[in-house]
Amino acid sequence: SLLAASPDGLNSLASPVLPRINIWAHRRMPPLDKPMDHAQLLVSGKHNEVLVRPQELNINGRQFVRVQLVNAAGKYQARFITEVGDFLIGFDFLTDSEKEMAEYSNSIKSVKFE
Questions:
Q1: Burial (0-12, 13-18, 19+ Cβ within 10 Å), 36
Q2: CB-based burial of residue 74 (10 Å sphere; 0-12 exposed, 13-18 middle, 19+ buried)?
Q3: Which residues contact 74 (CB under 8 A, 6 or more apart)?
Q4: Within the chain, what is the greatest distance between any pair of CA atoms?
Q5: pLDDT by residue (tens digit) across 57-82?
Q6: What is the pLDDT of residues 88-111, one digit of tens each?
Q7: Which of 9, 23, 42, 77 could form a disulfide with 3, with the two C-beta atoms 3.0–4.6 Å apart?
Q8: 0.90 surpassed by pTM
Q9: What SS3 class is residue 10?
């Protein structure tokens, strides 16, 4: 995990506070070495309802894969994944409602890599 943040702050990574963003990095290793692999793994969960199937998109000149779902507990998640060198970088937006998820995940448009 690189960063976990919430408008009201977090005491730890394990905090259940929502809304929040988690930013993470995983070394690329088969079979999960592409952004689409991680997105497909996320939607394969039996108790997840997929709202937006994994799709590729371009944000500020960088390729991402996006997926959106709601889990069995009714929590919403939008995940954006990109490749940076030997790593996959993920941005997870977690909220209590689909409206909040859309609002908070829209901030991905402000992310720029240099």
A1: middle
A2: exposed
A3: 96
A4: 38
A5: 999 999 999 999 999 899 999 999 99
A6: 999 999 999 999 999 999 999 999
A7: 23
A8: yes
A9: coil
